Description:
Blueprint: E1 9-14, E2 25-32, E3 35-41, H1 49-64, E4 67-68, E5 74-75, H2 83-95, E6 108-111, E7 116-124, E8 127-132, H3 139-154, E9 157-160, E10 163-168, H4 176-185, H5 189-200
Amino acid sequence: MGQIVDIGRRIELVPMDSYFHDIAIALYQQQTTIGPSFLVHTYSRIEDVSQRIQFVVDAMQTLGGMELTESRLLRFPCGTDHQLACKRVFLEACKSDPMQLVESRPDTIFDKKANCDMTVLSYGNGRYQVTANGDESGKERRVSAITGGLIKLGDMITVDEKNSDQVVFPCGCSHDALVGLLLVRAPNVRAVAREQQMTASRGVLSSPSQQE
């Protein structure tokens, strides 16, 4: 009789991986002796599937600034789970083209609605400020929207009422690569929410007896 292994609690799922035979890939969270850790897992036994999983793991390290534990699990260097942000890192890693070099995202994006560049400045200790260049009207509103997007996507918090354009990670540690990744999605949080709902409604992660 086979032994049942507890791989943790599933927190995110890609039901059909468009880059590898439409397999299902999931992200699991475990509580280890060194804190919250994450496992990228699939039940598929398709040839070379381990290479696909390794690509996703490597991409998460690059895109989210995560690191590998001795047990080959992923974690954030600060030791906090940052679960909501980690789920976004996982989804973006699965979307990354394996034929292209995966690179961390820049700290600047062009915002179409404000018609100017938006940059996130790092002040250390997990504190960041959203800034906009140019004199276009409405940029303050877009700065506020993007700041709110970072809060929703990364479980960040506002510094104080006087600095509404600044946010901070509760852990007090900097996560520059992670913020760069979240910045890309921050201007349109509603679209992100719709995408997550659609993903959650499609498919399940099947056991080996059900998935080839």
